[in-house]
Amino acid sequence: MKECLTLRIQNSDHAIASALGEATSWFAGLEIPAATQYFMRLAIEELGTNWMKYSSQASHADGMGFELLLCADRVVLRATDTGPAFNPLDVPPPPESLPPEKRDPGGLGILLLRKMADRMSYERRASMNIVTIEKNR
Length: 137
Fold this sequence. Notes:
- By secondary structure, this protein is α+β, with helices and mostly antiparallel strands.
- Helices cover 38% and strands 27% of the residues.
- It is built from four helices and five strands.
- The protein has helices at 13-28, 34-54, 57-62, 108-116, and strands at residues 4-9, 64-70, 74-81, 119-125, 128-136.
- The protein has a five-stranded antiparallel β-sheet.
- Strand 4 (119-125) and strand 5 form a beta hairpin.
- Helix 1 (13-28) runs antiparallel to helix 2 (34-54) and helix 2 (34-54) packs antiparallel against helix 4.
- The radius of gyration is 15 Å and the shape is globular.
- The two termini are 17 Å apart.
């Protein structure tokens, strides 16, 4: 089984579903805990959805890339896009003092990724956003 899976999505819900299907198939041949597989698929869906919703039309032409890497002790997801600079680590958590119906929409998915990841980093290189998420096996 390949130790790396590379995916590229364009701006469509079908593209995310297709990428999730490819990731699921890739994981099927590996001894990765179900919770880790679920988290990585959640990360692809959340990052891909945010990219579609908030990035510019110009970056949509380039698509968004995902690379899943199998390491001895962890699984790594690297997401790349050419949209405007966006560091998910800088997104403030929603105010917990407000009930959910009174909060502004958004931000919960990124917060969930940050809480569930074992490590998460952001880098802006040239005109590219690079988000790396790691989950121990």
